[in-house]
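Support request from a user on the community tier.

User writes: "When I paste my structure tokens into the form, the page sometimes reloads and wipes my input. The last time it worked, I copied everything first. Here is what I submitted, just in case something in the input itself triggers the reload:"
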């Protein structure tokens, strides 16, 4: 079986599963008006005016307090000490500074304020999430959840955690545009890593691009679990290459129709892989 057919098969299966899940979610919503699944998808043609998702209700969790409200965000935390409040202010400032750029890029804007839960206790956060991570977007709840230390040791440390909030906000936006994109790992994570500017920050110092993964690997959730950061980095470079060569409109079409990657870019997956990997080695 050719690599092209293998990848297309994987993407098709993932999309079928995602569509089934979305259908199930819509049925649940009909039975329960309190459902918080993603519900809004803009039309398939890019427009010049951002579209909107349903408003997000504040969390009803007695352990969390509203620490910071901004023009577009609501930041909650179980810890409202002065140090944590200052830290959340830093996250909120970065969120607001990047908000117009992100919603403008994707031509999509949430109608309600984005809800962010910030935990300064890493053990508490990972126990609550149920896995070893420092940030996630929970699509079913439409909430960003992050761990961030109560104070930053230096500018690099601050950048790491402000990048993280932006990264998760990008997941929130593109998964509201098309929930199925969350099942296509290299696009979902690559877009977040590239658009958050995490990739550009890393490229300032990184020069070693050995062991470039295959598309088969980048399409596998197991590869992300095993390789960690490397999977995010290389996925980001693919998205960067697509954006630079084919343009932002093509990238937005891929978010809406990831199964049509060859038609949108007018190139086979094998050719895309060869061109991207060659460009990366330059």
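"...and here is what came back when it finally went through:"
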């Amino acid at each position: 079986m050719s690599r092209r057919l293998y990848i297309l098969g994987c993407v098709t299966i993932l999309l079928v599963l995602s569509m089934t899940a979305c259908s199930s979610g819509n049925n649940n919503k009909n039975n329960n008006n309190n459902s918080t699944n993603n519900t809004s998808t803009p039309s398939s043609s890019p427009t010049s005016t951002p579209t909107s998702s349903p408003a997000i209700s504040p969390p009803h969790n007695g352990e969390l307090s509203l620490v910071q409200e901004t023009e577009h965000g609501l930041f909650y935390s179980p810890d409202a000490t002065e140090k944590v409040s200052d830290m959340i202010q830093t996250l909120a400032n970065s969120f607001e500074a990047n908000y117009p750029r992100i919603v403008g890029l994707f031509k999509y804007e949430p109608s309600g304020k984005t809800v962010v839960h910030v935990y300064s206790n890493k053990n508490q956060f990972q126990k609550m999430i149920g896995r070893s991570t420092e940030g996630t977007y929970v699509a079913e709840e439409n909430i960003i959840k992050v761990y961030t230390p109560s104070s930053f040791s230096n500018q690099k440390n601050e950048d790491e955690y402000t990048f993280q909030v932006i990264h998760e906000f990008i997941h929130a936006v593109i998964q509201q545009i098309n929930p199925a994109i969350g099942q296509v790992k290299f696009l979902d994570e690559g877009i977040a890593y590239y658009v958050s500017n995490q990739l550009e920050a890393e490229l300032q110092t990184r020069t070693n691009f050995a062991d470039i993964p295959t598309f088969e690997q980048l399409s596998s959730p197991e590869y992300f679990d095993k390789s960690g950061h490397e999977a995010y980095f290389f996925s980001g470079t693919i998205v960067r290459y697509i954006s630079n060569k084919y343009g932002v409109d093509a990238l937005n079409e891929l978010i809406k129709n990831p199964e049509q990657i060859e038609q949108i870019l007018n190139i086979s997956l094998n050719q895309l892989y060869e061109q991207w990997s060659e460009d990366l080695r330059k």
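Agent notes: The reload is a front-end session timeout and is unrelated to the input. The chain is about 55% helix and 10% strand. The CA atoms of residues 94 and 162 lie 6 Å apart. Escalated to web team.
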